[in-house]
Amino acid sequence: MPKRSRERTAKLQKLISQGNFRHNISVIKKGTGEIVVARRSASKTPADYTACEFCKTFHMKKNLWKHMKSCVVRREYYGSSNVECEKRIAAVRRGKSLIVNAAFTSEDGLVNELFVRMRDDDIKQVVISDELLCREAGLRMAALGSKRDQKQDDVYRVSQAVRTLGRVLQLARETVPDATMYTLIHYSATAL
Ligand SMILES: [Zn+2]
Prior knowledge:
- It is a single chain.
- By secondary structure, the protein is mainly alpha-helical.
- The protein has helices spanning 6-30, 64-70, 72-78, 88-103, 109-117, 122-129, 131-143, 154-175, 181-191, and strands at residues 49-51, 58-60.
- It is 61% helix and 3% strand.
- It has nine helices and two strands.
- The chain is globular.
């Protein structure tokens, strides 16, 4: 690979991004820490960002489509052919599922599906960071049965139920920052 070649730049970019991507996924899973983003801005809430599916750098959702136009890895992927820039929505949705899939292993397929569809906000971050809430979400999704048997808003209802629990935990974290659903249940049980 010749120096300064586009191929080399793309490969290097990919390596750097992989490290940052892994870091960001662990931040999202733990619910604490700061994510590494392509361009600094006032907001550093993970929910405002998503990953480019090609180079895996994190961008503001509203700016992702702009990045796509100049992404070296994307250009590398499509070769020299000038492919039309994808619609913003598709890029953001694919970034979302990339993050969710990286944060959860394949056996959590049902939870993945739920999190891809759940609105990205602080409540979602709380839910994703809590092991017990994720398990609860998985069980509720499993209880829906096969896709064929599901009603249209079944997944939405699971989402709402899990988010309600997430709100409880978020509230608890205002007084006990490292509270988990497990500690909440444990301590309220011993207090009875
Ligand atoms: Zn990119």
